[in-house]
Design goal:
SLT_2; globular; two-stranded antiparallel ribbon; MltB-like; about 170 residues; Lytic murein transglycosylase; single chain; 2 strands; Lysozyme-like_dom_sf
Length: about 170
């Protein structure tokens, strides 16, 4: 089940993205699929979304140091977002790399701050990232291209698709 606070963020990000770039045709279910796979909607490791949509405690991924099948990505932000000044780590409920956040980070809740640990901001940034380069997420090719840009693993994309499909089916079942 998707927490109400996360669902609110995914729906708002869909609406904002459709207004900004209607050709993308992004659905909240794709954002929810990514949120499920990346952090169980902000609940990974006992974390939770507070009323303001901030994940507490923060969700910080493993160091991307080239070990154990992970890519090696040297630090890009001086440790500002992830606390690691040697390697980058994915951060927040939508698990953004600092360099990707620097490009797509967004203020989804209108408080004047783009925070990858805040679900409205992270969902809005994920929507922009998925829709980049004029992608039409409602087409099969556009959907796969967008999700594989988010994470270059076919297994990852299949997990996102399965979750998104479950959420879509749940909203259409009488």
């Amino acid at each position: 089940m998707i927490p109400a606070r996360a669902l609110q963020a995914y729906a708002a990000a869909e609406l904002a993205q459709r207004a900004a770039g209607p050709g993308c045709r992004l659905s909240w279910t794709t954002l929810a699929g990514i949120g499920r796979v990346e952090s169980d909607h902000g609940r990974f490791g006992g974390a939770a979304l507070d009323a303001d949509g901030v994940v507490r405690p923060r969700i910080i991924g493993v160091p991307l140091d080239g070990s154990d099948g992970v890519a090696e990505i040297r630090d890009t932000d001086g440790g500002r977002l992830d606390g690691d000044s040697v390697y980058d780590r994915a951060v927040g409920p939508m698990q953004f790399l600092p360099a990707t956040w620097a490009r797509y980070g967004a203020d989804g809740n209108g408080d004047g701050i783009a925070d990858p640990h805040q679900i409205d901001d992270a969902a809005r940034a994920a929507a922009a990232y998925l829709c980049a380069e004029g992608r039409d997420i409602a087409s099969g090719e556009g959907w796969w291209d967008g999700v594989l840009t988010y994470n270059r693993s076919v297994n990852y994309a299949r997990l996102v698709w399965a979750a998104a499909d479950r959420y879509a089916a749940a909203t259409t079942t009488p």
